[in-house]
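Input chain follows. Return structure tokens only.
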Amino acid sequence: MKLAIYKIDGTESGKEALLEDSIFGIEPNDHAIYLDVKQYLANQRQGTSKSKDRSEVAFSTKKMGRQKGGGGARHGSIKSNIYVGGGSVFGPKPRDYRFKLNKKLKQLARYSALSYKAKENAITMVEPFTMEEPKTKEMIKILDNLKAGGRKTLVVLPENSNNIYLSSRNLPEVNVITVDEINTYALMHANHIVMVDGVQDILVERHK
């Protein structure tokens, strides 16, 4: 699959980028995408929710009344969950939500996501560019020129560019990452992908 490479002013550069079918043209595996996105979201969870059980609440341990003859049910402690302020029975405990996925499955999920975007014509290739200083207005202009503004856009760079990142930081619909940070969630979350020329070559090199 070949895509025209654009300049940041929105005009075609006259060059084309070759997107390998082994990465951008596979039959997408929806279950692999599901598992990878599930793992990504699980890894974002802190897992620090905690409630006190009846052994931890600050109440007296004295028995509330005698066992028999009180005219009501038997109660052994005011810490019981049936009383206001008592301990929780099945409350949350600190836990680790992370789980393991094989590298090949995660790779399949990423390639499936890229193939979906390629089939949807949701990838725009752009010439490598730099920004002399962080300017949000300039970033907005570039995205508008590439017809990628006004929607959730993922910008993928071959290497880190601090000025480009800072220029997009105030744009809630724009996410800038490097090729090293590509993940299935970011790809599927975006409506459009702006990929800087050279990223596809790095992906091919790592696929070998």
